[in-house]
């Protein structure tokens, strides 16, 4: 049976003659799943990078690190973008890079301030394509109110890249008292999502594969700092994340395990637009695992949930915010979803990625 690289999976034969696939995570070489944000990514970090870094890996494993400098607190993040194609319905790799970095800072509770940007360009890439991406990046930075203060450009031989790769690094300032981390999540916390999920992944896939779903699905790439600020002003936010690679499922699993709580979802409450639901049904995908680039997931004490929803809905990017579940004492570290038929299914951390190269 082929694995997610498209090649036949290796097999192992036990003493009784049974033949079974060797787990993909035992692969000796990098495969696409290592970049998924799921279980294989986590194992690569835990078993390769952290032991190699040793004591130098001093901070946590969030998308942004919070560091204290001269009595002030800064959020610091870096991200690389390899989306294929570089231009897709609703965006480009340029605005995706700016918005993605801004959002990592925003869900850490920070006010984004400055970004760096680095381009890795393949020899032979048309200058017009690079100009379009750069212009989109500049427009996105202006819209988000951040400055692009430094950067770098490298060119690789033709055939040794894929057009345009972008790396962005960002700094943001945290206000006093802001404390966003999974360890603050408690039993009873309500799980909120700021809007419709799965849009970005389906937009990129439809463009990449030339698929048509009766309507054009546009990426939701957008900066979330104003939405996050409105939420922080309204209530005590325990935790926020932007559910990009691995989708909402990966984010909820990461928080459940870090906070040692169970999470119970209501599938009927999930804001899945009809175009995404139809595309996922056609392709055999689960919307919970499809990437987003303009949504946040928040964990709020039950007494603050109504205020939090009102704050989210007061911003144009949060008008469709809904409560989709709660944290429970049962099944700690596990996400379970109540289905439309009244049953329950486990929403596990994805091993690899349903849709590679989407950010």
Automatic annotation (TrEMBL):
It comes from the Bacteria. It comes from Nocardia speluncae. InterPro entries: HypE (IPR011854), PurM-like_C_dom (IPR010918), PurM-like_C_sf (IPR036676), PurM-like_N (IPR016188), PurM-like_N_sf (IPR036921). This is Hydrogenase expression/formation protein HypE. Pfam families: AIRS, AIRS_C. Belongs to the HypE family. Residues 187-331 form the PurM-like C-terminal domain. Residues 63-173 form the PurM-like N-terminal domain. GO terms for biological process: protein maturation.
